Hints:
Structural class: mainly alpha
Transmembrane segments: 12-29, 35-54, 66-87, 102-123, 135-155, 167-189, 218-237, 257-275, 287-312, 318-340, 347-364
Keywords: Membrane, Transmembrane, Transmembrane helix
Protein name: Ionic transporter y4hA
Strand content: under 5%
Largest sheet: 2 strands, antiparallel
CATH topology: A middle domain of Talin 1
Strand order of the largest sheet: 1-2
Organism: Kitasatospora purpeofusca
CATH architecture: Up-down Bundle
CATH class: Mainly Alpha
Helix content: over 70%
Shape: globular
Domain Sodium/calcium exchanger membrane region: 36-188, 222-364
Amino acid sequence: MFTKLRPLVTQWTTVVPLLALLVLVLTWHRDLPGWVVGVVSCFLAGAVLAAVHHAEVVAHRVGEPFGSLVLAVAVTVIEVALIVTLMADGGDKSATLARDTVFAAVMITCNGILGLSILAAAIKHRVAVFNAEGTGAALATIGTLATLSLVLPTFTTSSPGPQFNPAQLAFAAAASLVLYGLFVATLTFRHRDYFLPVNSDGKVLDEEDHADPPTHRAMVYSLVLLGVALISVVGLAKGVSPTIESAVDSAGLPSSVVGVVIALLVLLPETIAALRAAARNRVQTSLNLALGSALASIGLTIPAVAIASHWLSGPLVLGLGPAHLVLLALTLVVGTLTVIPRRATPLQGAVHLAILAAYVVLAINP
């Protein structure tokens, strides 16, 4: 047994996550000088690449769409824990932290990851082909959850400001959890074929490559290391956030830019995994990662912060401002038009990236 595991133990994909976790323990809640931030950033990048590798090992063993679900849920659960921890620290920025993080995740996944995936696949294979049934169902669920959790608080009148009263927050949390649970059931059991990669004729592609899948032991080994790598990614991103905040303040930029940068760092594993799948013409896998991450971000974060709000001090602001409401509506409309034809050209990918660029520009210059 030791002989079989020795090659795995000595690989960089094993060593780097463990070292990154050690660096996280040594630097957690410490003021870091510039050179240490540079070291932490290197381990952060290594942990991202290791997470992508182990996610692909798990995905190859369990098949689609289970592999995409594992990575999306793992990242989101750790991200939710980070959000609640930061909210517990208090401060003026904690009131809008959940809203800003969730909206950033929705914009990055539904426009950034989706747009890059379509663009990469369409440039290499002329068109990006996917399954409209599964993608459309995911997009409809995202639109519903985002409206219930992020749009309605802006227009309710029972509480001052763009926030829910306790009964409304409980409803939004319950609806988010139920709809996300139903989506997972649809994705994994009842209509799994809606989320499998297809070719230009609409036929489901064979399983990933022709290589033999990894053993059960190797899959469990990668699953554990995936968790270690993702904890390291999110924790190290939190560690470098004070440096990012200082740089943002020095540049005179709004504090919301920090949330965008942190969201980009946390979503790097999914972005890289989606691009690699798109390059192999498995666009549906890329869309599963993108839209599944957006759904997990809303469906798990809102219930978590609703529960946490009972013991956390300060208000919980969830309602979006006018500019963000426009960007969310544009994202859903353009996403619908992208999904309906079942195939997309580089133009559609560029349109989604333009919406993400507008979001970034407004974050920098509101």
